[in-house]
Structure formats: C-alpha cells, structure tokens
Design a protein that fits this description.
The two termini are about 20 Å apart. With about 100 residues, this protein is mostly beta strands. It is built from no helices and 9 strands. This is Protein yippee-like.
Length: about 100
C-alpha cells in the first residue's frame, strides 16, 4: 500500500484503501454504472483487470476494469486505447465511480 502525505485523498468506500489524490482529479463529468464518476490522471493501490474492447457513450475503446488492491471492490476502469483521435486524451486515465469512493481529509 502506498503511504500518503498529501490531503485530501479519495479512498475505497469499502475498506478505506487510498485510491487517488485530489491533485490528480481531472474531471467530475463522467458517467458509470452507478451514476457519476470522476476522471483521475493517476490512481494507486489498484489492480488492473483484463483488457476488453467496448463501446461506451463517447466511442469505442480498449478498457480494463480496475479493482481495489486491498478488498477487490471494482472501482471503475482505465482507458487503454481510444479509437477516435478526439478521445485520445483519455488514454492512461482512470475513471472511478463516485459511489465507490469517499473523500478523506
């Protein structure tokens, strides 16, 4: 587990494992299975699942689901590849469902 020195942080709602720093938050304008989701430039304490090609609302992507490394809770996904040139900025970014995290100070 990564040791955190900066605050605030976003942690897994289930086990409080730190997932992302507030400084890495890029957008709150994403949608996921459970509703609102956040885009982060970096994530930590996660396990990346198998890659899959998937049609999402904004286009066709290769994504991989991400899971909390402590409790195994599915947190969201990471964009591995965007097939549309206008969506390339999402590559390497992490989408984390708001319902799966808690903001801690």
């Amino acid at each position: 587990m990564v040791e955190i020195t900066g605050h605030p942080i976003y942690s897994c709602r289930k086990c409080r494992n730190p997932i992302a720093l507030h400084d890495d938050l890029l957008s709150k304008s994403f949608k996921a299975k459970t509703g609102q989701a956040y885009m982060f430039g970096h994530a930590m304490n996660i396990v990346v699942g198998a890659k899959e090609d998937k049609q999402l609302m904004t286009g066709y992507y290769t994504i991989a689901n991400i899971f909390c490394s402590k409790c195994g809770e599915e947190m969201g996904w990471t964009y591995v590849r965007a097939f549309d040139a206008r969506e390339k900025y999402k590559e390497g970014r992490y989408i984390v469902e708001k319902a799966k995290i808690v903001k801690e100070y």
